[in-house]
Design goal:
Blueprint lengths: L1 E2 L4 E2 H7 L3 E3 L4 E2 L1 E2 L9 E4 L6 H5 L5 E5 L10 E4 L2 H9 L3 E2 L11 E2 L4 E2 L4 E2 L4 E2 L4 E2 L4 E2 L4 E2 L4 E2 L4 E2 L4 E2 L4 E2 L4 E2 L4 E4 L4 E4 L2 E4 L5 E4 L4 E2 L4 E3 L5 E4 L4 E2 L4 E2 L4 E2 L4 E2 L4 E2 L4 E2 L4 E2 L4 E2 L4 E2 L4 E2 L4 E2 L8 E3 L4 E2 H12 L1 H21 L1
Parallel strand pairs: 5-6, 6-7, 7-8, 10-13, 11-14, 12-15, 13-16, 14-17, 15-18, 16-19, 17-20, 18-21, 19-22, 20-25, 21-26, 22-27, 25-28, 26-29, 27-30, 28-31, 29-32, 30-33, 31-34, 32-35, 33-36, 34-37, 35-38, 36-39, 38-40
Antiparallel strand pairs: 1-9, 2-4, 3-8, 23-24, 40-41
Length: 345
């Protein structure tokens, strides 16, 4: 899904969803989060945890919990479930991506800008608004959707897909069958069903980034999922919406990074590492292979295990675990001796 340029009166949106409008009517032109909302944008306050942020938002209007006792800098719509109402109303401001059906060996839209030194293979789609820099090489079957930009000397291997609005820097390598900017996995369970959360942001990839094959990097919910300069991402990695990866980060095969997690510069995630959402991995930190990280990791720390623990502590735990069979045998022997001694009394 992507944002479309439309506008609605707030009173109309409230009436369509049987919600109460408090305050003056206004024109709404889109949706956004509390922190990123600007005049004309509709946002929401899910609960009182972000009340102070809501009181200082620049949004044109808010959807808030019914009966909340607070004042806001803009008109509000009251709802029993503000998040669900926001999801339902957001359908007015998003639209499915258009499908291009024109067959040819390669299709470059007349409104795309392609540098004369760029090389485009067969069965490639370059959609309207795309900008392809000098020396770019695009192999067979790649699909670039609307308004994608590809920097100088970047290579995209076969069958990779870049969704609308995403930005890829210079000297990058994008592996085969990789998807950049697909929709994030976001749902809100209410009224007996999973309601899809709109995903209208983009992916921004810096310079000198290498991404392996079969990698999925989801677009931001409202803003960006970002990969910093010089970072290297192995095959079969999942990077969820709103993730921020710093510069020169290493992410090894089959790692999974959940939504809204941030990773500092020069951090390393070993193979099959799993990170929960909304945590921070500090600069220079290392996450060992197969680890599951459930809380933030300080700068320079080496963690490993499930749940991930500081490496020094984990080694002691493993050493103790290795001694358990011998300890169990000792306990059994002591219990047997006690039983024998009790029989002699």
């Amino acid at each position: 899904m992507h944002s479309i340029e439309v506008s609605f009166k707030l009173s109309q949106l409230a009436k369509e969803h049987s919600l109460a409008l408090k305050g003056p009517d206004c024109v709404i032109t889109g949706i956004a989060s509390l922190n990123d909302a600007s005049p004309g944008k509709l946002s929401y306050l899910k609960d009182s945890k972000l009340l102070e942020t809501a009181r200082n938002t620049s949004a044109g209007a808010l959807i808030v919990p019914k009966g909340i006792e607070a004042t806001f800098p803009c008109p509000v719509i009251e709802s029993d479930d503000p998040y669900l109402s926001f999801i339902l109303i957001s359908s007015n401001f998003i639209s499915p991506y258009p499908v291009h059906k024109k067959p040819s060996l390669s299709w470059v839209h007349q409104d795309a800008i392609v540098h004369p030194t760029a090389e485009i293979g067969p069965f490639v789609t370059v959609s309207p608004g795309c900008k392809i820099g000098p020396g770019v090489r695009i192999h067979a079957g790649v699909k670039l959707m609307e308004n994608v930009s590809i920097g100088k000397s970047t290579v995209l291997y076969s069958n990779s897909v870049v969704f609308p609005g995403c930005k890829i820097g210079q000297n990058c390598i994008i592996g085969a069958n990789t998807v950049i900017g697909g929709e994030g996995f976001g749902f809100h369970f209410a009224k007996g069903r999973h309601n899809k959360v709109p995903q209208t942001g983009i992916v921004r990839i810096g310079d000198d980034v290498e991404i392996g094959s079969c990698v999925s990097i989801d677009r931001g919910t409202f803003t960006e999922t970002s990969i910093g300069d010089g970072s290297k991402i192995d095959n079969q990695v999942q990077i969820a919406h709103n993730v921020t990866i710093g510069k020169h980060v290493i992410v090894v095969a089959q790692a999974g990074i959940s939504g809204s997690t941030s990773i500092g510069d020069y951090a390393v995630l070993a193979g099959k590492a799993g990170l929960v959402g909304h945590i921070h991995i500090g600069s220079g930190a290392t996450v060992g292979g197969g680890s599951v990280v459930t809380k933030s990791v300080p700068d320079g720390r080496f963690v490993i295990g499930y749940p991930a623990t500081e490496h020094r502590i984990w080694k002691k735990q493993m050493a103790s675990l290795a001694r358990l069979p011998k300890l169990a045998a000792t306990i059994r022997h002591l219990l047997q001796e006690k039983k024998k001694n009790k029989g002699k009394e």
